[in-house]
From TrEMBL:
Signal peptide coordinates: 1-21
Species annotation: Mycena venus
UniProt KW Signal keyword: yes
Name the record gives this protein: Cysteine-rich protein
PANTHER family: ZYGOTE-SPECIFIC CLASS V COPY B GENE PROTEIN, ZYGOTE-SPECIFIC PROTEIN
Keywords attached to this entry: Signal
Length: 85
């Protein structure tokens, strides 16, 4: 019984210190970014996902894409490293 306690306690403590919000927080963050991108496109009179390559894309679509990229990068650096409450 004593050996079980010696092994179990360090494993339990290691699990507590290594827990992160990870995929759930990241998914929620990305969903918010995508919702804003769709609204940005709609505000420019475009439909998200239907604009073709960059040389032919309107400036508004490129601006929305840059904002989406910035938001997505922020999610990757913040939400994946956020501790679980």
């Amino acid at each position: 019984m004593r050996a079980f306690n010696i092994v179990f306690v360090p494993l339990a403590l290691a699990g507590i210190t290594l827990v992160h919000a990870g995929p759930i927080a990241y998914g929620l963050c990305q969903t918010g970014c995508n919702a804003v991108a769709v609204a940005c496109y709609a505000g420019a009179g475009l439909v998200f996902g239907t604009v073709v390559a960059a040389p032919a894309a309107p400036a508004a679509a490129i601006t929305c894409n840059v904002a989406l990229g910035t938001c997505s990068a922020t999610c990757a650096t913040v939400a994946l490293l956020a501790p679980t409450p």
